[in-house]
Amino acid sequence: MRTARSERLSIGQVAERTGLSVSAIRFYEELGLVAPVRSDSGRRLFLRSDIRRLSFIVIAQQLGFSLDRIREQLSALPQARTPTQRDWTRISRQFRADLDARIALLRRTRDRLDGCIGCGCLSLKNCALYNPEDRARLRGPGPRYLLGDPAVGTGEADRS
Q: What three-state secondary structure class fits 155?
């Protein structure tokens, strides 16, 4: 048994606590991200720890993580007990590398947005300096310099 009935919350109470709509909570249930138990009359009853799970889902989505990735992380949490600080720490470590990479990309974008981003457009007068003869395209499609490739002329980008 998961917990005493008095510790369970209705879907309305969970919606009020999380700021999510009832339909969003039902959607997350359909995806297997939360698993309420049913009362004898069929009402959904949630654990208090489901508030934390739903809050994690909201934050992870705002950070750009897919629902599949979120489900993968939540599946590592215990279903029969409230997750501990150790459980949440393990999950946060999984996301840390992704977040660090995104932060680095955002910083590069911020710092280089007004200059060449290595997109291969050749439409700026500066492209002759930053991307002569469209060399960035040899590294692949898209904004190569923002994706982390060194700029042409630094020596590294010219080596293949």
A: coil
Mean of pLDDT over the chain: 82
Q: Which two tokens stand for residue 33?
A: 């991200």
All structural domains of the chain with their residue ranges: 5-106, 115-160
Burial of residue 17, with CB atoms counted within 10 A of its CB: 0-12 exposed, 13-18 middle, 19 or more buried: middle
As assigned by CATH, the class of the 5-106 domain is mainly alpha
pLDDT > 60? residue 156:
no
pLDDT (mean) for 100-126:
77
* 2 or 71, which is more confident: 71
Cα dihedral 111, 138, 127, 158 in deg (nearest 10)? 80
Q: Where are the alpha helices (DSSP H) in 19-76?
A: 22-30, 49-62, 67-74
pLDDT of residue 136: 82
Q: How far is residue 96 CA from its own chain's centroid? A: 10
